[in-house]
Amino acid sequence: MKFIVVRVLSVWFFFLLGCSNPETNFPIENAKSYLIKTVNVKLDSVSTYEMFDFELVRENENDELFFVLNKVNNSLDVYDLDLGGLIDRFSLKNQSEIKNFRAYSMVAHNLDSIFFLQQYNLDRIISFNYNNKKFELISNRINKSAPEIINHVSNPSSPTYFFKNSFFVTNWTFESGIKPSGLPSNFISQYKYNLETGELNGFAETGYPYSMVGLTFPTLLTLNYRVADSEGNWIFSWPASDSIFVYNSEFKFKEKFLAKSSFSNGFKPIIPNASYQIEMDYFIKNTNYGRVYYDKFRNVYYRITLIGRKPDDKERIEMNSFQKNDFSIIMLGDDFSVIKEIVFEGKVYNPFLFFVGREGIYFPKTNIDYQNLSDDNISLDLYNFS
């Protein structure tokens, strides 16, 4: 069955459950058939459904705790999904050791080592031990001869990792993707910061794919998403590439694998110095890729695809307009071969905000266009694609 998608109605109506596209040769399936259950979590007066920074951490063999950085309240909120509510909250603004600290991101290495970072720098890092409920300010003296990180990401889409007393961070450029000179060949997206020595080192091979260098793309398509797996590999997903890129533990390039969505039509450069509206139109109308995730429980990988759509005539295209788009998850095996593509309807979830636990993959219903969005509770749909 060949797909000819006409964007009058949702892409949802243009495929049959379990069919496949001969150009990609893998099944395309409806996410609804994999829904296991819905978990409802109560929110209190200072909680927020805007959960942009979170981690699911195993407490023991059977129990998991959901840690959320509450940026509105500047606190660490801890939820038990089985109980459906908040069980702990730790303020980052009332600790004598960490006054005037506004947390930008969180790294939950384990229950003993949860780190909080500030935006744009690594000068001050807070360590928190959940077991003994103790905060500690880590005084950093970054070696000033090292390259400076301007915009470390440290979010669920490109998480910061803590290995062997070092932080591994993704750096997103502040440069526009539409400059006439095109994307540079010397960009470095990955850095290692040694907590003991203060050394900050970049990995030269982590720049843009060759297929993008020297060309112009909407800035949102020049970001990168990466994840580490249990074998020590780093897997990269670039929004404007149908392939994923695999590096070893030292960020030396190993191999790329085709991980193309059935809805992708490839990528053409945008005109240099395009207006903001042209950039956003390109981003919404053209299928592109989001985060990549390693599921350690099932030893598979998930790659998010934002499926392009034709906006309504009266719609004003803005940064969050992508949340109206349908999206899919490309599921890959441990050899990076595509197993299947699972399609989700838009306006329910934010496709970038999900997490994986022992039972499956959780999607909070926090899309800004979700009709039942509430300040009192959050519904999380649990899927298992096995």
Automatic annotation (TrEMBL):
InterPro entries the record matches: DUF4221
Annotated protein name in UniProt: Uncharacterized protein DUF4221
Protein source organism: Mongoliibacter ruber
